[in-house]
Design a protein that fits this description.
The chain is of the alpha/beta class. The protein has helices spanning about 10-15, 45-55, 90-105, 110-115, 130-145, 165-175, 190-195, 200-215, 230-245, 260-265, 275-295, 315-320, 345-355, 370-380, 385-395, 400-410, 425-430, 430-445; strands at about 40, 65-70, 70-75, 85, 115-125, 150-160, 180-185, 215-225, 250-255, 295-300, 305, 325-330, 330-335, 340, 360-365, 385, 415-420, 420-425. The structure holds iron/sulfur cluster.
């Protein structure tokens, strides 16, 4: 019996989607949002301490990334799952000085001092919530202490709110060469409905300012499916961004989660329900056509770039599973053999750094097929799957195992085949996370008889 025949109806529908669907909008029932199956084995604290010491003592010249998590925001946006702390001056001061200490002490260890770092991403939270002096301390410490490659992409993520000239100067003086701005929408009513503060005009003026400095790529995030946002409002957002000359745009779907603040407001009838997933599919496909008409390139399924100035290197290299040094509170990193994350809560983070220890909260050993999972999901994130590479990594004709699923997608026009390469059509691109997850599920069903695919976390909108 093949893996497909062994599935019950519910699991089959999770992996294949709705095989009777007549349009792509109902190809799957719900958007899946996390990659289950890739979780490695969690290490006990003593084992984690040993694994960390072992990794730090080894030099390596593999590709490397740096991620810094700044866990503060001036206000809380309703849709967000990343909010941690309100920006309080004394806590941000304590955090900044601990962060500099954490980077300095790590930088002396072989794993951090060897090789070159290809991309740095300062995210959060909102790094722009820090003061200009705190931003300077963080960025200059990174620049001075870590071996950044000459062509290192150095991204500072921020919202436009309270982004002063002094903060911009602090970024540029320290070598930031890419700003990632959370815009979400230029429409004041839509953006304020989800908790953003600035009006649309203020956001546009900020983008004009950053573009006129001509010192760094400017990439923005836009969202579709916001409350009060019509399809034509979303297309207008894209056209506005294009007129402003942004170097890149990431187009994200708003996902509403059952336990989130946004759902709370919708239930209280303080906000209208957002468009359903099927309606969002229409926003997506129209936006896709507009981006193609405007001549943008698509380095990944959610990201579009005007030319090569916005390299989006960090995003790409993260999905490929490259080594990642994590700093700050609530940051996730990777050594060559392990994944780890730092303490999310400020107290233990500050306490451990003060005691001269890496503030690691948890560590896990890579899944035995981590490289294969990374290859599959990073290729699908770029809109294709190369059969020859998958089979070579699996050391086995895994694509033959995938065949029932790929054929089903092909029939429903979610993919096209070019020899042994499968490419996602624009319709398939709307479901790329489900498709990557389905391939990983199939891989695990084949190799691991005890594996059960789960819906884990899915969007709550209909
Ligand atoms: S600023 Fe960013 S991290 Fe903070 S709450 Fe808003 S979306 Fe979330």
């Amino acid at each position: 019996m093949s893996w497909a025949e062994a599935l019950d109806a519910e699991k089959k529908r999770l992996i294949f989607g709705n095989e009777d669907s007549t349009g792509f909008a109902s190809a799957y029932d719900k958007k899946r949002t996390v990659h289950a199956g890739s979780k490695g084995q969690v290490l006990a604290p003593e084992e984690a301490a040993k694994a960390w010491m072992g990794a730090c003592s080894q030099t390596s010249d593999v590709n490397k990334l740096v991620y810094v998590n700044v866990p503060f925001c001036q206000t809380r946006c309703l849709y967000c799952g990343f909010f941690k702390n309100l920006a309080k001056a004394d806590m941000m001061e304590a955090f900044s000085s601990a962060l500099a200490d954490e980077i300095k002490s790590s930088a002396q260890l072989p794993m951090f001092s060897s090789g070159s770092i290809n991309a740095v991403y300062i995210g959060g939270g909102t790094p722009g919530a820090l003061s200009a002096e705190q931003i300077s301390l963080m960025l200059e410490t990174i620049k001075e202490r870590l071996p950044l490659a000459n062509d290192c992409e150095f991204t500072f993520e921020t919202r436009t709110y309270q982004l002063t000239d002094e903060k911009i100067d602090a970024c540029l003086n320290a070598g930031v060469n890419r700003f990632s701005l959370g815009v979400q929408s230029f429409d004041t009513k839509a953006r304020r409905s989800i908790g953003r503060v600035d009006d649309g005009d203020t956001v546009m003026r900020m983008i004009e300012k950053l573009k006129s400095l001509n010192e760094a790529a400017v990439s923005i995030d836009l969202m579709f499916g916001l409350p009060y946002q019509s399809e034509s409002d979303f297309i207008e957002d894209i056209l506005t961004a294009d007129r402003l000359g942004v170097d890149g745009m990431a187009l994200y779907q708003l996902n509403v989660f059952d336990d989130g603040k946004l759902m709370e407001k919708i239930k209280e009838e303080k906000l209208p329900p957002p468009p359903t997933t099927a309606e969002q599919a229409v926003y997506f496909i129209k936006a896709h056509a507009v981006m193609q008409r405007l001549g943008y390139m698509q380095p990944s399924m959610a990201h579009w770039v005007r030319d090569t100035r916005d390299r989006s290197l960090y995003n790409r290299m993260t999905k490929q599973g490259n080594m990642m040094h994590a700093f700050g509170a609530g940051a996730g990193g990777r050594t060559q053999q392990h994944g780890y994350f730092t303490h999310m809560a400020l107290e233990p983070y500050l306490g451990m750094v003060k005691a001269g220890r890496k503030p690691i909260m948890g560590m896990s050993r890579n899944h035995e097929r981590q490289r294969l999972h990374n290859l599959i999901s990073s290729q699908i994130d770029c809109g294709y799957l190369r059969g020859d590479m998958v089979d070579a990594e699996a050391d086995f004709r895994l694509t033959e195992v995938f065949e029932p699923l790929i054929s089903s997608w092909e029939k429903r026009k979610l993919v096209e085949r070019f020899g042994t390469t499968v490419k996602l059509t624009p319709q398939g691109q709307f479901w790329y996370v489900n498709m990557a997850q389905s391939l990983i599920d199939v891989t695990e069903l084949y190799f691991n008889s005890g594996y059960t695919p789960t819906a884990a976390k899915v969007a709550a909108q209909n």
